[in-house]
Each structure stands twice: as structure tokens, then as C-alpha cells.
Amino acid sequence: MKIAVIGAGGVGGYFGAKLIQAGHDLAFVARGAHLTALQTQGLSVEGAAGEFTVRPVRAVRDPAAIGPCDIVLFAVKMYDVDAASALIGPLLGPDTLVLTLQNGIDAPHRLSRGLGARRVLGGAAYISAVISRPGVIRLAAPNARIEFAPVEAKLAPLAAEFADAGNKAGFTVDVGDNVDAVLWKKFCMLASLSGVTGLTRSAVGPIRDNPVTAAFLADAVRECVAVALARGVVLPDGLADGIIKTFSRLPALMKSSQLEDLERGRPLEVEDLSGAIVRLGAESGVPTPVHRAILAGLILHAGRVA
Ligand SMILES: NC(=O)C1=CN([C@@H]2O[C@H](COP(=O)(O)OP(=O)(O)OC[C@H]3O[C@@H](n4cnc5c(N)ncnc54)[C@H](OP(=O)(O)O)[C@@H]3O)[C@@H](O)[C@H]2O)C=CC1
Ligand SMILES: CC(C)(CO)C(=O)C(=O)O
Questions:
Q1: How much distance in Å is there from the Cα of 124 to the middle of ligand 1?
Q2: Dihedral (Cα; 171, 175, 180, 186), 10-degree rounding
Q3: Is the CB of 100 within 6 Å of ligand 2?
């Protein structure tokens, strides 16, 4: 397939590297020192899934140099979604699909307003990865998965083709039929885990081992699920308990991308995570004291630049 990745970071860089390794025609739209490293040294992956390098790598600043693609993986942080959406135009052909991989719940809906819903797939990425230095992605847990669903009910042939390509390239791709269910299922886990790891400046192990922080984390999950249900999102029965159980299976040293960003002095996505839960809870009449506490504890760091 012909694929472009906008945002060659932890998420876009890892999935992009696996797709290049599998022989797809893939180009990154990147910037800064990371772009220079991709152009001169290629892209290396290290950490939990072993080490490999793809070289040469096609990486550009201007998407016009790539032209129309089958699929665009859209993997910038949430606070960059609007600015980076301006890069998509030159990558569109008549059937091109854009797969969003942000952690929040509104990126596919925001892109649909400009691109038309038929082009947009809303994805949730289950992966733990960062740019450890320019040109290098470090993976903290071995298995990576994308679950996506089309914003419009009908699944385009290219979407099914991408799912097949990902599964053959060495990560898991699952296709759902309800985009909000896909996004909120991950959001209830992620907004809670990233909020509590960020607030406590701790990896997941010590949080789940301490009864005070374990209860706070569990309450964060239940609060988010209550907001989703109040808004009519269809979620699996027992989701909150299921999420809380999955925390016990995570590597003890695993950090959220929000904690990684906090430690690096980078801007935070908290206003689209706990901030969204507080806003939507207020709209729906659901109290959100835990996410309010997380938001209050992180908001002053949200715009930090190292
Ligand atoms: N990292 C993780 O483990 C996970 C992250 N997510 C979610 O995925 C999304 C992406 O996160 P992540 O991969 O961590 O982010 P990163 O910061 O690692 O990567 C994003 C990349 O996009 C680049 N970028 C931003 N705007 C532009 C632009 N206009 N043109 C070119 N490049 C641009 C950034 O450059 P620059 O550094 O210069 O800003 C950066 O290199 C987030 O919503 C996150 O919450 C989901 C699951 C797991
Ligand atoms: C918690 C995790 C690693 C789960 O995929 C994540 O999405 C993030 O840190 O952004």
C-alpha cells in the first residue's frame, strides 16, 4: 500500500517502521532534528520488541513531495491536530483514508468536519513508545495494537486492506463498527492511567501496589465510564472492572506517554484527557472529582517546553 505518516513519533514512528519493514511504500511527514535524523540515518526501533533499523527512510517536511496515498496515519499529539490537519490535503486521492491515532475522543470528528466523514477512521493505539533521541523510537512493552472503526458506518475496502497489512507487518489491527465505542474504551483506561501516573510522577507498579493510589486510579476509571454511559456511548458490560484488572498485567516500570512528556518538559495533552472528562461530565450531570484533581495537578505544566 502507499502510506503516509504525519507525526513520526512514538506511535507513528513505530507503526511506520513496521510497515516499511513489511515492504510498503511509506513516507513520513516530520520536522526538526528528528526529520534530519530520519533522512540521514534512517529510523531505529529499540526496547521491548528487540532492535531494528529501516534505512533509507523517505521523510519530508512538505507533504506535496509525497502526493496521494491509500492511507494517511495521523499521529501528532492532540494539541497539534488542527495545525497538522493542514498537511493532509496533498496526500488525498479520490479514495484516500485518514486514520487518527490520538488518545482523546474527538480527533476523528474534528478531521471529519474538514475532510468529510467518509474518509476518516478513528483509531485507538495500544502501544507504549517514545522518541528516545532523534531517529530512534523506544518501545516499553512488546505488543502493539490498533483498533479502529470508520466514522461513517460502511467500511471502505482500503480500510480492510490496511488492517490486513498491519496484521501481516507484525502488529495487531482490530476493526470495530462503532467509532465512539472504540475511542471511549481506550480513553477510560488511558485518561485514568496517564492522569494518575502524571499526577504522582510514578510508573504504574508503585501506583497499583499502594492502596491509596490504587483506589484513586480505580475511581478515575469508574468516573470516566460513568461519563461515557451518561452520554449514550455503548460500552462492554463490566468495562471498568476489566480495565482495572488490566493494570495488574502491565509492566511495573511502564509509564504513560503523558508522564514521559512531563519528565521531558514537553507540553501535555491533559486538557483533552482529564479536561475533556470534566467538561463532558459537567454537561451530562456526572460529578468528576478525581479527574478535576488530576486536571488541577497537571494544568500548570500543560504548556511546558523544555
Ligand atoms: N506514545 C505512546 O506510547 C502513545 C501515544 N498515543 C497518542 O498518540 C498521539 C501521538 O503521540 P506520540 O507518538 O507519543 O507523540 P510524539 O510527540 O512522540 O510524536 C508526534 C510527532 O509529530 C510531530 N509533529 C507535530 N506536528 C507536526 C507537524 N505540523 N509537522 C510535522 N511533524 C509534526 C512532532 O514533532 P515535534 O516533536 O517537533 O512537536 C513529533 O515528532 C497522541 O495523541 C498520544 O496521546 C497513543 C498511544 C500510545
Ligand atoms: C497507556 C498507554 C501506553 C497504552 O497504550 C498509552 O496509550 C499512552 O501512554 O499514551
A1: 14
A2: -30
A3: no
